[in-house]
Design goal:
This protein is mainly alpha-helical. The chain starts with 5 loop residues before the first helix and ends with a helix. α3 (about 55-85) runs antiparallel to α8 (about 170-205), α3 (about 55-85) crosses α9 (about 210-220) and α4 crosses α6. It contains 10 helices and no strands. It is globular, with a radius of gyration of 23 Å. Helices cover about 80% and strands about 0% of the residues. It has a single domain (about 55-250), classed as MetI-like (MetI-like fold). Its main location: membrane. Pfam families: BPD_transp_1 (PF00528). One of its GO terms (cellular component) is plasma membrane. One of its GO terms (molecular function) is ABC-type phosphonate transporter activity.
Amino acid sequence: MVWFRRRYIAYILLILVALWWSMDMTDFQWRKLTQIGNIIDMVTTRFFPVEWSLFPMMAYHSLVTLAMAFLGTFLALLVALPLSFLAAKNTSGTKTMYGTVRGSLSALRSIPEIVFGLIFVSAFGLGPFAAVLAIILHNIGVLGKLISELIESADHGPQEAMRSVGATKWVAQIFSIIPQIWPNVLSQYFYRFEVAIRTSLILGFIGGGGIGQQLFNHFQSFYYTAVALDIILIMILVIVVDFVGARIRATVI
């Protein structure tokens, strides 16, 4: 059988060694999972009844989080879209331009939002503004790379047809490639929008505002019934964004 070839046996042994090494490095112990009952006991005894009296205030902070994620992702898309043409092999003017823009996008993508957030909170003070800037910079790197790969895989036929009737290089590239990749760009945007909501929660822990900051404060003060309300609102926020994104993608695609 093909699975008993030496090569596949060697791969399986390598994976097993990597698993053992990872579990040793992270002190991963299966027996600790027997303590999961403590978590269930904590949730059932301390998280209920949910503190619904805080709903108006927490609904406002949920909307702040939604605004942070939308603004950060949308502005990132506006910047990443033109940059992605310069970061794609088939549309970038020169190899130097391609390498420079691609390297810059990789540099932005390699820095987590929380690092950007810590820098901007120090520079601009606490609040959602610093969090929005952090989301913008990281998402420029991510969206720029993803869109540039879509551009590289686009069909060259429409572009050559437009050039043959007198269109300039850039006009042919823009008006022949964007219609091809637009549904996938939209799909990537909504995915990053969902990720930005979760990122906004983490940025709230360092003073970025929104429901993430409230969640951190409630945990710090052992106000678990309020934490339960925070978690419910976060789940609703993510589900609503996922539903709306799916409907828009279905309409466009």
